[in-house]
Amino acid sequence: MTPDTVRAAVARAAGWADCLLVSAEIPPEAVVAAVAAAEAHGIRCVLNPAPVLPELLEALPRGPVVTPNASELAALHALMGGAAGASVPEMAEAIRARTEAPVVVTLGAAGVLVSEPGMPAVALPAGEVAEVRDTTGAGDTFNGVLAAALARGASVLEASTRGVAAASLSVAAVGARSGMPRAEAIDAALA
User: Fold this and answer.
1) Quick check: 172 pLDDT over 90?
2) Around Cβ 174, how many Cβ atoms within 10 Å?
């Protein structure tokens, strides 16, 4: 995965893709190129900073929705020179203020915290789960459903609500892929 490969893929998607989900599990220069290409083509972008790498700071000013978990949030906040001991809402707000874009912090069983420009932070609780069987892939489920909902025109808060419902459903099954719920199950959970 190179910056040129990523730029070419995003260019091919321009005109029909409405959201690009980028994970930091590819080379950092490819992450930065993907976020920049999405911006250049007017495609909404979600950046999951897992793992947190110094190069990600170059992508943040381009305005992707950033979706760290609590430990990634702390690492990103520290990388940006944030003070130690800040709370999750304080760290999310600091990053949101710097990027001028939404920050959605995944908090496992506690749900998510959504920090958007010009709005107070909103905590969305996780759904009730009868039995947690496997948390593997819950964050990926959240991010995928969030990006899909944004691509359909949902607001960040609406997309986060849908993502939380999906992630909550995902932990009731064993396996990252087999735990990912279908749209009908998410709709039913939200009803």
Assistant:
1) no
2) 10
